[in-house]
Amino acid sequence: MDLGIAGKWALVCAASKGLGRGCAQALVNEGVNVVINARGADALKDTARQFKVMAAMWAAAAPGRVAPQVIAVAADITTEEGRAAVLNAEGGPGRNFDILVNNAGGPPPGDFRDWDREAWVKALDANMLTPIALIQTVIDGMAERGFGRIVNITSSSVKAPIDILGLSNGARSGLTGFVAGVARSSIAAQGVTINSILPGKFDTDRIAGTIAATAQKTGKSEADVRAAQQKQIPAGRYGTAEEFGAICAFLCSQQAAYITGQNILPDGGAYPGTY
């Protein structure tokens, strides 16, 4: 299926690895120009190099195609300086992004009794306030041009809270509530959609961190924790970043124009509820 977004410009945050990388890769493979951002310069540079190879392959696959651009900006997107660096990237679209994929590493797991105000503020900055700031920056331009796709990568904990991820539960739920209202405002009739993807257990560095925390808390080995988790997933395994990226790319497509304000839950069937 041609998603109809070749030539568009996308900003993908935390795109050097994991789910953010999966999303950016899927967009590049649809011919989308991407500005990828992460704090780690080395990993981001390596990702950009691989994406440029993919972009060239996409262009070579059919006559008349032009390879999408890949621009890497190593910066802390949770700061004003970091956001300015992304928006002022040489060769980029400035504020005129057609697609925004909000993503940030989740705050550390732990016991809520140990979290002070600074820990909460940091979690809110990364997982709620920064996505809102980026939405504010790009949404009016999207509406004026009649096309916009905003995808927030949150967590399945928004729907089914995880006890050791209280910082994430709170911050991401706040973003979800904000998006629920904005997605149904006047921008819905101007071709702009906002949706969130709530990943369950995907095979990323993040899951490795939560496995380690659970192992330490329970006294079990990490291998046993991993096996037990996968056994509880009806699909019998963790998801992959490529699978996640495909979902993101579809939500960014022309075909997904009638989907907005939704929370998509890819979790291999782990959530037991009907709704």
Automatic annotation (TrEMBL):
Database matches in InterPro entries: NAD(P)-bd_dom_sf, SDR, SDR_fam
Entry keyword set: Oxidoreductase
UniProt-listed Enzyme Commission number(s): 1.1.1.100
A family per Pfam: adh_short_C2
Presence of keyword Oxidoreductase: yes
Keyword NAD: no
GO MF annotations in UniProt: 3-oxoacyl-[acyl-carrier-protein] reductase (NADPH) activity
Principal EC category: oxidoreductase
Family: Belongs to the short-chain dehydrogenases/reductases (SDR) family.
Stated name of the protein: 3-oxoacyl-[acyl-carrier protein] reductase
Lineage: Bacteria, Pseudomonadati, Pseudomonadota, Betaproteobacteria, Burkholderiales
